[in-house]
Amino acid sequence: MEEASLYISVISLAFLAFLSILLLNELRTGAGNFYLTGVVFIAALASLLRFSVRTANPLLLILPFLVFPSGFLVGPLLYLYARHTLYGSPPGRFEIYAFSAVTLFVFASHTVLSSVFPEMRSMSDVQLQVGFVTVYTRSLIFTSCIYNGAFIVRALLLVSRYEAEVAQHFAGSVRDQVLWLKSLFGSTLLFFVLYFTSTVAAWIAGFSLPATPAEGIVIVAMAYLVLFYYIKKPQVFALRMEQTSNVRYARQNLADADRLEHMRRLEEYMVREKPYLDQRISLSDISESLSIPVHHLSMVINIEKKQNFFGFINSYRIAAAKAILSSAEFAERTLLDAGFMSGFQSKAAFNRVFKEHTGMTPGQYRAFAQKKITSP
To answer: What average pLDDT does this structure show over 43-72?
Structure first.
């Protein structure tokens, strides 16, 4: 157990140090990465403290002055990262003051307690969790897990709200971006839940709180997750939700004649320009092309077609896909080709939407259509 914990500590420290360097280099891409870089850097400091505990390194007595206060910034930074990434909202002045106050309070408390209790100044006592060190460590972990967990839950709720808004106003898939945020926040929440439960178990059993391999494995998994997306899908780090003006049109007035005219122009535009073939098409793109306010266009689609924008665009994409799958000219093209040619971003999205509209998979539909063509 000791060797495994030390080995995992070394791996997590190396991973996080490397990630910190990469993300620091990427700060020029936008403030959103500043928050993520801060979280990774704090995790790297925590891993260094973890390593110091295992090896009785003198840093064991110094790092808590940095790690404990900054540990209370992980949840707020992830929440700010989610908000900035999804909506471009910067932190308010009160938020900055509040988060800073919590951090300074933890730092001041640790400073005072370290001067009062001699065991907090002894490497062996800190390693073995002797005396007041045990009570202090447990209390700090409890408070930190609850505090950070609350902000991470808020971040997950923001992602859920974003998904609902995307369904209303965007036709392009944001599956990768949303999956990235959910994975990041979910794994971080898992870490705090695991740390909280292990602390409770240790308290009940009367054990000290050594760094465990399980907690280290979660840290390594989180570091790998960030590195994977950084290398394979770097576009998720630059995600921005396109802002639209008032999309809640319940109080907007639009005469029936105007609404029908907008619908006629929209349908003509869809047939003539085929904007649905653009994987990243948005409601505001079409609004700009037709010089129709976004909220009016959204109203027209909802009232006249009983659909949101996403469903409206996908209906055209499915029609295009059915035409491709039924054509002998494209008989040699793959199903994925048909999906991309119809405006879908991925095979999974194509298969899901196609079955929702037709009751068949693209492969089943092609076989059915080709059979009709060849039948006498």
So the answer is: 87
